[in-house]
């Protein structure tokens, strides 16, 4: 599973940087300042959790286990739901996509909780 988390980390990091650059250069004059800030929030959380996935991948090499894998799953789901819903909201203008965002936030919290529990159980 470590390979999967490291690959997802690289993908999330790459796309996070690309989307951030796209927003800064391509969307700067197309989105309202509020929507641009929302989009940038999505990229910020995506990049933070790309690093979290990297940590999960490294941890999975040394301390494999169910909690480590659950943390990776939760971080990946969080990126899709949280950041993805913010991207969709700003690009489409469909405000109801914002209802998905908190589920991504909860997934991030679950990921951090699982990571903490995994560390707690280490000997």
UniProtKB/TrEMBL annotation:
<keyword id="KW-0812">Transmembrane</keyword>
<feature type="transmembrane region" description="Helical">
    <location>
        <begin position="99"/>
        <end position="120"/>
    </location>
</feature>
<dbReference type="Pfam" id="PF04241">
    <property type="entry name" value="DUF423"/>
</dbReference>
<comment type="similarity">
    <text>Belongs to the UPF0382 family.</text>
</comment>
<keyword id="KW-1133">Transmembrane helix</keyword>
<feature type="transmembrane region" description="Helical">
    <location>
        <begin position="68"/>
        <end position="87"/>
    </location>
</feature>
<keyword id="KW-0472">Membrane</keyword>
<dbReference type="InterPro" id="IPR006696">
    <property type="entry name" value="DUF423"/>
</dbReference>
<protein>
    <submittedName>
        <fullName>DUF423 domain-containing protein</fullName>
    </submittedName>
</protein>
<feature type="transmembrane region" description="Helical">
    <location>
        <begin position="44"/>
        <end position="61"/>
    </location>
</feature>
């Amino acid at each position: 599973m470590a390979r999967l988390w490291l690959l997802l980390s690289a993908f999330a990091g790459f796309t996070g940087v690309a989307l951030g650059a796209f927003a800064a250069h391509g969307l700067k004059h197309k989105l309202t300042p509020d929507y641009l800030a929302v989009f940038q929030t999505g990229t910020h959380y995506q990049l933070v959790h790309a690093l979290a996935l990297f940590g999960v991948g490294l941890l999975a090499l040394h301390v494999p286990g169910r909690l480590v894998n659950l943390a990776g799953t939760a971080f990946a789901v969080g990126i899709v739901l949280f950041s993805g819903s913010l991207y969709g909201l700003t690009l489409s203008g469909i405000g109801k996509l914002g209802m998905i965002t908190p589920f991504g936030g909860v997934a991030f919290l679950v990921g951090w909780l699982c990571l903490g529990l995994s560390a707690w159980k280490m000997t």
